[in-house]
Design goal:
451 residues; eight-stranded mixed beta sheet; 14 helices
Amino acid sequence: SRPLQPPAFELLRVEGVHPSGRRLQDLCSGSVRAALVSNYMTDAPWFAQEFPDLVSSEELIVCHDGKSGMRREAEALWGELKRARLRHGLGSGGRGRLVVHAPDLPIPYGTHHSKFFVLVYTDGRLRLIIHSANLLHGDCTHKTQAVWFQDFYAKKPGDATCAFEVDLLAYLGALGLPRECGGFLGEVGKVDFSKARALGLVASVPGYHRGGQRDRYGHMRLRGILSRQRWPTEFKESDLVCQFSSLGSIDEKWLKSEFTESMASQMASDREWFDRELYLADLEREGVKLGPNFPFFHGQLHLVWPTVAEVMGSLEGAAAGQSIPGYEKNVTKAFLQPLYRKWGRCPAAPHMKFYGRFSSGCREPRFCWAAVGSHNLSKAAWGCLQKKETQVRFHVHALCWRYCCCRRPSLTTSTPSPILSALCAELRAERGGLRDRGDRSRPVPVAPKSV
């Protein structure tokens, strides 16, 4: 079949809202020989019905969240997939392999949150899909979700290993898959990823990472990728946008110093844009004390977070709030209030996780870089530097993909352009402060269940 080479990233289809979007079921169809499926929540009967080509593949590996509270769901997932594969003639007489695996969570409150597929087809190609949706009917049909995907082929003699391959294999290795999955990982290692349309992969792995491992994951990996890039001058005063579906317990120093430094990174020779001393003086007048490595950045930071009215007016109504969790003590912190921006007029509630840097001075917004994946805005997902910045701590397995937009303007003509344009219009309208956000203090009207 024809390989899929998307222009950037796309949205999942929501009838009447994102009608030209993709369906995960379609992206995962065809002659799949082996599949690795990773997600936080999976409705086993729905998955078995909607993804028959994965269920009937010779080798199916499913990674799921292994918290004690999810044990019953894991057992149900195993049982349902085993029965579904038996209906396809697999699982009896030694035919096929089914592995249901919970990656290790070595520190308290850990979560496996990565949402991706690695599919190996009978014709030898490999398809990598990174997305933001739980494998639930409502997530894939009624919420705004993002997806990136690309087909890759086997290496030719003499092909070298690229950074994208190193990052992907390192993360797959960190999942701690059983030994019987070694053949699958070996096949991934034979694929040429040098044509990946991405700046790189950014993964997060629970635990404490020191030495050479400190910069391998999370926002420190993002910092390393972006620090090798030179951006056009139109992004001199560009803004940063974070759009997410869950807000953790973050503090001002982490958000405005550590995390922003990573998001605002660029090649050192381009940093003459920034009057660092003036910016630090302004922040100190506001009572914000920052370290010596504060980023060379003087745009604005926008946190896109829906209001109660936006959630209640969405396709799912109050039920959508279950997937947009934010404890009131976290959401109502004073330093966050001027940074909040509305979701906008889209009736499909946001569950995508989008991060980027964009120029707000143009009639049509242009993005410097963009990222989609499963990282929500939290220290647990992006990492938190500790012990005088010699180690970084994570609680969450997550994976996202980074794309350089300013060199490939196709992003502005791809599927998500209407929602991105609308979002940027909202950000420009609210630039410099919030307007009429009196209902923002409790954006989640019901108890959170899924992220």
